[in-house]
Amino acid sequence: MLDYQTTVQDFDLNTVASQFLSGSMQAVNACYECCDRHANSDAIALYWHGKDGRKEKYSFAELKKYSSQFANFLKSQGIGKGDRVSGLLPRTPELIITILATWRIGAVYQPLFTAFGPKAIEHRIQLAQSKLVVTDLANRDKLSEISNCPPIVTVHAETEAERYPHDLSFWTVLNRQAEACELEILNVDDPFLLMFTSGTTGPAKPLKVPLKALIAFASYMQNAIGLTSEDAFWNIADPGWAYGLYYAITGPLILGHSTLFYEGGFNAESVCEIVKEYGITNLAGAPTAYRMMMAADPAQMAQLRGKLRVVSSAGEPLNPEVIRWFKEVLDVPIYDHYGQTEVGMVVCNHHALEHPVRSGSAGFASPGYRITVVDEQGHELAADVPGILAVDISQSPMMWFSGYEESRKSPFVGQYYLTGDTAEIHADGSMSFVGRSDDVITTSGYRVGPFDVESALLEHDAVIEAAVIGVPDPERTEVIKAFVILANNFSASTHLEEELGQFVKKRLSAHAYPRLIEFVTELPKTPSGKIQRFLLRNQEINKQQAKTA
Fold this sequence. Notes:
GMP Synthetase, Chain A, domain 3; 31% helix; 17 helices; Rossmann fold; 5-stranded parallel β-sheet; alpha/beta; 6-stranded mixed β-sheet
């Protein structure tokens, strides 16, 4: 295993670029890097497990052929360098073919999450000015509600020709095309993805991902995920979102490694089935999925003990009991990683680099990045002082994000990119996540991170999930309120409220416990499973206003 400090000190962008890219930084094509250069053997690129139980596998050579054919079709539609193609597809082979074909001709792929409603889709397609949308029959109806929708290619459109007379059928148009298609060679600053990132306020913001990000994605796969040629890899994140698109598709493929698409629902049974059937050794996903595994039948989960080599988690901080459970029940280390759509993963506990791993820490800056903590004015703060987590661009040669497509409040202050997340950097350089800036609770002069309180609550046997917010209070500025989902064998009561409050008080401190507890059956979440604390906060403010009105 490589030493972390040495890797950071020796980091050179050109050296890393030549390690992961076949071309130069002035001559690169994402489809070539992620497909064509690996197509000279029978190496498998995609294992596909359909929701109907069908199983297929596709070699890099097959994907080269299909993506060339679909690329020729795109060209026949007048689509070329810089144009946007949107994909409203689940985890299917057609999704990967669409992405690779788009990249082959120098066009830009724009993902649409299949759980989006028509308005969210319309917003993205219109801002992207997409020239074409590729979808399947399960999602096709959503596009019927969109004004000025671009041409639609639907998988198996021919079976519903009466309903969608103007749709083109994916395999029909693909099969009509020649199997050779010239690559459009680009510069590393040219875009290959158009992503949307949603803040707590306002509509989703578009941002271009340049080809330079390929180097960062590959580096993350190698250093943090610790992907080796012997691994069977499964990233359970949806490719309609950044973590799935960056690290379930682009990341493994650029390394010439296969990826796995499981189209069915994620539950305890399916996890066991897929891990065993495909011999999965390297797993990546979000804590939501891991907590679900913990809640499953212990005997069922025990079947997976010793099967996995490493597990990676991203999207929100890992609770300590998740780390313990994976160690005790599955005998596998699970490491926390932190990143954003805007910058990719930038702080990690690296599986393939030697450095201390401390529970509660998101790890260390990825090689090629300098991470720091600043105040609102962009002044760096001392160790263990909470502030805004920032990327020091002047000392981050791997950094690829240069701003949003639309003019709005800049995320940059001086030489820093501000993530909007609150964190502490410790003396050893590791980082601990405190929460979104607007999530930090100030009570009786103390600043309390909701994550700490949530983690403490989750230690109690009665608690399945918890979300913690600050509720305005004239005396204390804010009081801490917890929304708690109970385990099946526990019932809501004032006694249990008191017990949970004391339980947290003992674990954290006299000021950092929930004075208010509400038992609920569900919590508001983003489609990727993150708890939307701001919705709970707004709900409480509205209640207070109604009382005083």
